[in-house]
Design a protein that fits this description.
Largest sheet: 5 strands, parallel
Number of helices: 9
Radius of gyration: 17 Å
Distance between the termini: 40 Å
Shape: globular
Strand order of the largest sheet: 2-7-1-8-9
Structural class: alpha/beta
Helix content: 40-55%
Length: 228
């Protein structure tokens, strides 16, 4: 199967997709900590150091610089196998990215109990909330300022072209968080402070002061993005 054929049939499969009863039973005992935020805000570092069970995503997109197979994501170009897995209901959920690529999580990628953590595009957060987890907690990671965010992106080696390609998704991410009543804001100014805030959030504890500071920073960044 060619990529063009795969991209053509994937949307219909994703729209009608339902996970297996076994997958639904498994996630019903889990708390899912959803981490949202645009490129460069530090999601990966926070997730890696959180101490919670990371759920890697299967995807048909190309890997990005620094991403490792089987650690950051499971990258695949075996479109026939992906279609077979979708029809066999081997995924908990599937979604279609802006470029037509698959983003999905397998039942076996989730822990048997406790808290699972994963980065999720803002567009798909409502899907995960409806899947049937015991609890879902949404954390938006905000840098302290637009200048600090851009500085982190430059240091990561992301090209200007790649940055421009990702700005529409960044805007949607900020817009979602600022209008969603269930999203809590994590201020990533200092890694240890952000980690503490994230871990406490998973326990049901919020830091109102840091959360408000993060929200104000997010509002200012979105205004900056919208003025471009």
């Amino acid at each position: 199967m060619t990529r063009e054929q795969f991209v053509d049939i994937l949307p219909a499969l994703a729209e009608d997709y339902r996970p297996s009863p076994d997958a639904l039973r498994k996630i019903s005992s889990l708390t899912l900590l959803i981490v949202v935020g645009p490129t460069g805000v530090g999601k990966t570092t926070l997730i890696e150091r959180s101490g919670f069970s990371f759920v890697p995503t299967d995807t048909t997109r190309d890997s990005r610089p620094g991403e490792k197979q089987g650690i950051d994501m499971h990258f695949t170009k075996d479109y026939d196998q992906v279609i077979s897995d979708i029809k066999g209901r081997r995924f908990v959920q599937i979604a279609v990215g802006a470029s037509g690529d698959l983003y999905a999580t397998r039942e076996g990628s989730y822990p048997d109990s406790g808290v699972a953590i994963m980065p999720i595009m803002a567009d798909t957060v409502p899907v995960f909330r409806k899947l049937g987890f015991k609890n879902t907690i949404t954390a938006f990671i905000a840098p302290p300022s637009h200048e600090e965010w851009m500085d982190r992106i430059r240091k990561s080696g992301l090209s200007e072209r790649d940055l421009q390609d990702r700005l529409p998704e960044a805007r949607r991410s900020f817009q979602f968080a600022l209008t969603d009543e269930q999203t809590d804001f994590i201020l990533n100014d200092k890694i240890e402070a952000a980690l503490k805030q994230l871990r406490n959030l998973a326990l049901g504890e919020t830091n109102r002061i840091r959360g408000q500071r993060a929200r104000i920073a997010a509002e200012a960044i979105l205004n900056r993005l919208n003025s471009r």
